[in-house]
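Q: Two folds, back to back.
A: First:
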Amino acid sequence: MKTRREMLEEFVAADPADSFSRYALALELEKEKRELESISQLREVIARDQAYVAAYYHLGRILARLGQIEDARAAYRQGLDASTAAGDQKTRNEIQEALDMLD
């Protein structure tokens, strides 16, 4: 039986532009303590779909946990811009809170 990660990897391979599957794969990789792979997938989500605002929050959170504070700040700031542009106030507030906690 395939793992959740394996299924998500297949979804991404079948449709590389599917932001949701790639985002879900990134979160699954994070659960498996494969943070660098998770970061790579989140960055790819953002590169392909800048309006997928949840990716910025999780990218910043992982980077901060790994001690990459300036990179985390940059991800959060990009997320603020993207969530403002998308009109997503809830995610914008979450990103702002996370950014404030770094300062």
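A: Second:
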Amino acid sequence: MTAKDGETATLACDDLDDEGAATATFEGARVHVACALPGERVRATVTHVSSHRPEAWARLDEIEAPSPDRRAPACPAYGSCGGCVLQHLDVAAQRAWKEARVRRALVAHPVLAGVAVAPAVASPKDLGYRNRSKLVASGARGRLVLGAFAPRSHAVVDLTGCRIAEPPLDDVATALRAAADAAGVAPHDELTRVGDLRHVVLRANAEGQVHAILVTARAEVTGLDALVDALRTARPEVVGVVQNVNSSRGNVIFGHETRALAGVGTLEDRVGDVKLRLSPGAFFQANRDVAALAYAAIARAVDAHPGEAVVDAYGGVGGIALTLAQASGDRLDVLGIEEHAAATADATASAALNGITRARFVTGDVATCLRDVARADAVVLNPPRKGCDPAVLTEVARLRPRTIAYLSCDPDTLARDLAALVERGFAVEGVVPLDMMPHTPHVEALAILRR
């Protein structure tokens, strides 16, 4: 037998999947139930059955026996926005699940048997930690809505009152909605191609200053100047507003044309004691407090000495490289490699902000740039979710660094790459999960390897 669409069942949930939904076994299928928790008995209705494997998805109808770890969600949009899907789970239980998630990824590789996984590092803030809000512009009942696409949908969920974003961001978004409505700047409709405003991206720094990016479907937008003036009058913490033009179809946020409308064109932030310049589209860790903890842990593990050489691969805007350089008193040769030119420019500018002279940054494919490196006493890897290209691991092994620090945002690709490095003569000293994004199933982890 197998589960059927529309079938209602009582399920005993036993785990969470990688997306944060509870799982249970029913009629020979693994069933995923969003908003349920391990240890709960629930009534649910099957909404989709896979035609490829014994797997199904169900809608939660009733919680017959709740978990003692169940908590009241903080956000009004919980359950519909699809972002922070673990708000109903106690944060300590979230961290325990993230530790188990890392262990599960490691044990899939026999060469990693016995690798120690430390308790997950807690975020100093469970709410109000996210320093960037990426909002979709839509319309409802004649007013602008700024929100997020509902899961597997183009329906936009209003994110007014979001508790995950740093406190200035929701207030700025509320003021921006009012300013846009008053100025007559309408949201863009992707089907009719009518309207102008597509996305709003807000970034806050450690001092509470905010930078706003208005993504529009065309360059000339009637009422845009009035919107900007009203926004900056209502919210003085908005230190800069830029316009990005994206006339393409689809859900890619940014286009290729950006211009400053008012105030500063970039935002200066701080992670630990390092100042960083962030251009409008720059990637930066969503939780600067946990990023600071991770970067400090990397600096301790690397323990670089004056005159040594360190490579920071996938270096982004230079946060890790500059933390290492600063920890050495600028007596360390640091090379940052990043494929995005704008990030390299930010890193170079940030080095100047911090008075660091011996850190340099290059733009290019990581593996290709590593081939030009003759020596590295330590290597830092901080790749995107897909992990390191095999050619990158080959080049790292060629350099034979005494220490590798690998900061990962995906346990499965981390485990895969650690196994490859072990086979090349490195030993994993340990792995530390970091709760970079509480209330989400996102798992960050730092692994330290020694030659």
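Q: And?
A: The chain has a mean pLDDT of 95.
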